[in-house]
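hi! just following up on the protien thing from before. the input was this:
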Amino acid sequence: MFGATCIEGLVSPDYAVFDLLDNQRVDFALERLKAPDLVDQFALQSKGIGSGFNRLYTDRFGSIPLAVPPPDEQKAIVNFLNWSNLRIDRAIRAKRKIIALLNEQKQTIIQRAVTRGLDPKVRFKSSGIQGMNDIPEHWEVFRLRMVIRRIDQGVSPQAEALLAEDGAWGVLKSGCVNHGVFRDTEHKRLPDGFEIDSSLTVNIGDVLVSRACGSPALVGSVAKVKTLRYELLLSDKTFRLVFKDPALTDFLVAAMNTRYYRTQVEQAISGAEGLANNLPLSSLKDFKLVIPPKPEAKQIERYLAHELQRISSAIERTEREIGLLREYRTRLTADVVTGKLDVRGVELPEAEEIIEESITAEGEETDEAEGQGEALNEETYAND
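and the predicted 3d structure came back as:
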């Protein structure tokens, strides 16, 4: 990793400080040093035990050959990359806004189904839950402790910031559950020889709850493990819920992805002295859930599976598009800084034009994202 300093200070022995020659541009050097050809050379010249504890010593770093263009061409390259990155970033922001609107639409569908049911003629009663509207009169309110058999909590061992591949084991990170979605790549690899506790292994079908996280918005997030590509252990920052009636699992997971559940999480976090961004187990057990009779719960599960599939597919497709844009940026940058793509004759807009274009694009991004969200809303209500 490389970065340019903007203040004076001290660094630890894990870092080295270099000065560029007077006629070399720092902004060009940073882009050049991140190019794949040099990254591969850095890996070859590094020494250490295992891939997670390598060091690149100054003498070996300094011996790596590097061809650089003259200063005027460096300037042209940096200007081109600034312009192209602006356009790529704009496209990524637009797609992120679309994903945010899709997630909002997803939450609206879940909220309506698991709090109001599917029968438009049903009679309602007061829920008795602060901040929640009336619920179908034949539904019941239970505290979470009444519907779970047990809650498991994992371990927090030292681990490497690598994926658990080639037969290795990993331990979940605090961000493995994010707004109703479980991501198996959010883990760290355990060292070889770590003693595995089979009771803490993560399995398909597990229901996980984020107990603690750096982001308060992710604390209390709930998701079911649907796919699993790695051998993983539960961490101490994640709860695993085991419900008394497995047939209600999908409905209960949906219920724990609603605004009324989220309100309870936020109240529990704010009321836990000295435990910022930490969900106390006692509070979690006391959360209230609205539950219909089992046949109706299964009907709602089937409805949600059908309605949310197209939204989830749209989110996955948009996330793949963001990934492709990032790959394109990496390849474009590498081609430009290595001279494979000559940008010396490219005419770029003036700085003022670029700023104005960026401001205009921000409005267009919002309009595009809102337009797609409105189209999804219309389609959803048309299908109700």
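The chain has three domains: 1-68, 71-118+292-384, 140-291.
Residues 140-291 form a domain with the Adenine-n6-DNA-methyltransferase TaqI; Chain A, domain 2 fold (CATH 3.90.220.20).
cheers
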